[in-house]
Specification:
The complex is a heterodimer.
Chain A (H helix, E strand, L loop, with lengths): L6 E7 L7 E7 L3 H12 L7 E6 L11 H5 L23
Antiparallel strand pairs in A: 1-2, 1-3
Chain B lengths: L3 H22 L8 H29 L5 H6 L10 H4 L5 H22 L5 H29 L3 H14 L11 H8 L10 H14 L22 H15 L6
Helix pairs in contact in B: 1-2, 1-8, 2-6, 5-6, 5-7
Classes of the chains: A alpha+beta, B mainly alpha.
Chain lengths: 94, 251
């Protein structure tokens, strides 16, 4: 194929109550085909209850060179992390 | 065997899925791209899963310690009752899609009707299969529209594929002697009844795909009676190779 189909990112919610998570990416000519391809590539074995697809070009990503200013300042401020209480065992998916 | 007609009926339904699955399986690693390759082999696996349930049932009906593998792998060509449509070669992607869609519309109608079978096993298999078959029809129908209403080249190829397979569609609605008996008992389905709605549904989609409905003066048939096209022998040679070469092998 000379003309490549655009790339799409696939997000799948594995069950009700959970958030959609990034599963991977695939090629498709349009949104409808992207959904069907996502079903075939990622959710054929009952992995999900809902699929989102978005064309990869619409995702704005942070630049790895900016990692310092974006992420590292938090590291020396433990009070910014909610770690000072015990999580009950019953609470899952945290 | 006590119920010869039921046995034959089950094989008539099952063999279509086996042979079409085998044809789609040949495309594994050869699809036009990764996503479509996976989709086609998924459909093949769905069909094999369905056919397994039927063959397990057929083996039970046959008795004598026969297994699903005997039924699937060790019959002679004339004992396979699939329609000619499903044994036709893959040729190109347009052909794969045309063959699939023309079968899927029929398959969906058959499964819908089989849900009401008096035979619990057949009704249960239909209930399990219908979601898969519904997806197959969506997949092949979408591709048919894309290619028919796509570029000039894809339109031309898709029309050629539809014209090529059209003569095989009429056989889908033929009733064998066992089919008639089973339909009368409410176990099987009278497929001749869907003929009109089948051609209506297919014609509507072809129109949407900007394709012409072929006006066909003659139809090819024979598979349901075990009289196959020259392709069938090659399919069985590959399908049966392991069991013929290493009898009773398992893995």
């Amino acid at each position: 194929m000379k003309k490549e189909w655009p790339l799409w990112e696939v997000f799948v919610r594995s069950k009700n109550g959970l958030e959609h998570r990034h599963f991977g990416s695939l090629h498709a000519a349009d949104a409808e085909m992207a959904l069907e391809n996502a079903r075939d590539v990622y959710t054929r074995r009952s992995e999900g209850v809902s699929i989102w697809v978005v064309e990869s070009k619409y995702i704005t990503a942070s630049n790895p060179e900016d990692n310092g200013e974006l992420f590292e300042p938090a590291q020396d401020k433990v009070y910014r992390h909610p770690t000072f209480y015990d999580l009950p065992d019953e609470v899952k998916h945290m | 065997m006590k119920n010869q007609d039921l046995y034959k009926y089950v094989l008539g339904v099952a063999d279509n899925s086996l042979i079409l699955g085998q044809r789609l399986g040949e495309l594994c690693g050869h699809g036009p791209n990764l996503e479509t390759d996976i989709a086609l082999t998924n459909i093949a696996l769905d069909l094999f899963g369905q056919t397994r349930s039927y063959y397990q049932y057929a083996a039970k009906l046959e008795g004598n310690g026969k297994t699903e593998d005997d039924v699937a792998m060790l019959r002679l060509e004339r004992d396979y009752k699939n329609v000619l449509l499903v044994e036709q070669p893959n040729t190109h992607f347009g052909h794969v899609i045309a063959r699939q869609y023309l079968f899927d519309v029929f398959h969906y109608q058959l499964m819908t009707a089989l849900l009401n079978s008096n035979d619990e096993t057949l009704a249960a298999i239909a209930a399990k299969s219908i979601k898969e078959v519904s997806y197959h029809k969506r997949f092949s129908g979408d591709w048919l529209k894309r290619l028919g209403d796509g570029t000039e080249e894809s339109h031309e190829k898709m029309q050629e594929a539809i014209d090529h397979y059209w003569p095989y569609t009429d056989e889908l609605f033929d009733m064998t002697e066992s089919d008639v008996k089973m339909a009368a008992e409410g176990i099987g389905v009278d497929v001749s009844e869907f003929k009109e709605s089948y051609y209506k549904e297919v014609s509507d989609l072809l129109e949407e795909a900007t394709l012409e409905v072929p006006a066909n003066p003659y139809f090819k048939k024979g598979g349901k009676e075990g009289i196959h096209s020259e392709h069938m022998g090659y399919i069985l040679t590959e399908l049966q190779y392991m069991q013929r070469t290493y009898p009773n092998m398992t893995w």
